[in-house]
Each structure stands twice: as structure tokens, then as C-alpha cells.
Amino acid sequence: MRRGLQNIYRLLGAFILFSLVLVLLLDKIIMPLYVRHGKEIELIDVRNKSAHKAVEMLEESGFEVELVDTVEVSGIPKGVVIDQQPRPGSTVKSGRVIRLMVTGGQKFFPMPNLVGQVLKAANLILDNSKLVLDTVEYIFSSDKPEGVVCEQSILPGSMVAAGTPVRLVVSKGKPERQYEVPRVVGLSLSEARQAIRNAGLRVGILRYIPNADLNPNTVIDQTPKAGKVFDNPVLVDLQVTTEP
């Protein structure tokens, strides 16, 4: 009988001890966490900060963060917060999800084809594409009427970003004369220079090639090739022998 009472007392003591521990946990840990989680606070402003810094600040304040969109904004670098929901200064509960809109930086798109357009139309296309007309060069052209774009510095279809400078070459109409490249391979460098000048052209890049079989300063190759005809003067590049 006494042993039975002792067991009952032990069970009762264990139950009382467990109850005290549970009350302490609720009072000191669980309830404060619950109350703090539901506490309303003023939302900080993280606009114009980097996304990494904004997330860090919000998480330290007890919020969860979600990046909901990326947009391109002129003049603002990639990865900067430009808006947040709820708005800064709003009274919200800690633990709420804060959504941030972040800049995505430059966006790329295909370069439009401007060849065949009159200069005014080409300039309008560049403006609509947010591209910049850098310089305009005028040359004679047998196949493009006067005032029409015949060349562009960036090939159509190449990926470009807003603000990219573009150089255009515009036709001055048909030339009064054309320029035929003379054959200068086999001539000495001085003879080749004279022949190129007589054709209304100029010598371009000289590349010297060691050669033991030919006299030094002998032209062994040329670009463009002989017989090519151009509407405008071009440079003629030469490969010339030199001593080994």
C-alpha cells in the first residue's frame, strides 16, 4: 500500500514539474516570439539601394523578401531597387513578404537594317530604337541614289543596346569616274607606288615577307586584286619582299 502511494506521489511530482517547465516555456520563449512576430512596425525604405543590400536590411528587420520583376531604366545601373510593395512608411507586421522591383540593366535587340533608307528615315529608325547617330560619311555610289544609306557600321541583326553609336555612309550619287586597281605584283615598291598613284588610289598597309629568291622590295601580292573597279578611291595593301 505504501509503495503504491509513493508511486502516485512520484507521478504527481513529475506532472507538477512538467507543468512548471511548460508554463516557463510559454511565458519566456513561445509567447514573446508569437507577440513579436505579429507586432506592427513601420516599413523601411530600401529604394535606390542595391538588391543585395535591400534584401539584407529587410531580412534583418524580420521580413521576407521576393523579387517580383526586373525592368530596364535609363541611367540606373543593373540590380537597383526602384520600387517596393508595401510602400515605405507603411505599418506592417513583422514576417510579411516585401516585394521589390529591381532594374534589369541593359536590354539587347537586333540592329535594324538601314541600308536603302534615305538619311532622314534612317535617323528616325535610330531614334525609335534608342540608338545614336554618330557620324555620317558621304561617298559616291553607282547603285544607290543620292541621299540613300549604302553602308552602316553595325551589321543588321547584330545585337545592340540602347545608346549604341552607329556610323552611316550615305551616297552622293553616281561618280563622275571610277577607279580601277592596277596590277602591281612583280613590280618594285617604288614602281608600284607610282602605278597606284597614277590610278588615283593610295598605298595602304605594307607587309614585308622574307624571301631569298626575289630582290628586296618586290611586290608579291596586293589587296584589292588587279582589275577591281571602285566608285571611290581605296587603299591598296601590298606584300613586299625583304631579305631573309
How is this structure best described in words?
The protein is α/β, with parallel strands linked by helices and 244 residues long. It has four domains: 1-37; 41-103, Trypsin Inhibitor V, Chain A (2-Layer Sandwich); 108-171, Trypsin Inhibitor V, Chain A; 179-242, Trypsin Inhibitor V, Chain A. The protein has four helices and 15 strands. The chain has helices at residues 2-37, 51-60, 119-128, 189-198, and strands at residues 40-42, 64-71, 81-85, 91-93, 97-103, 108-110, 132-139, 149-152, 159-161, 165-171, 179-180, 202-210, 219-223, 229-230, 235-242. The chain has a three-stranded mixed beta sheet, covered by helices on one side. It has a three-stranded mixed beta sheet with strand order 7-10-8, covered by helices on one side. It has a three-stranded mixed beta sheet with strand order 12-15-13.
Largest sheet: 3 strands, mixed
Morphology: elongated
CATH topology of the largest domain: Trypsin Inhibitor V, Chain A
- What is the CATH C level class of the largest domain, in words? Alpha Beta
**Overall tally of structural domains:** 4
Distance between the termini: 121 Å
Q: Any low-confidence stretches, pLDDT <50, length ≥5?
A: none
Query: How many distinct helices?
Result: 4
Which range best describes the helical content: under 10%, 10-25%, 25-40%, 40-55%, 55-70% or over 70%?
25-40%
Number of distinct beta strands:
15
Mean pLDDT: 86
| Major sheet strand order | 2-5-3
CATH architecture of the largest domain: 2-Layer Sandwich
Look at the helices and sheets and give the structural class: alpha/beta
Q: H/E element string?
A: HEHEEEEEHEEEEEHEEEE
Q: What oligomeric state do these chains adopt?
A: single chain
Query: What is the CA-atom radius of gyration, in angstroms?
Result: 39 Å
Strand proportion: 25-35%
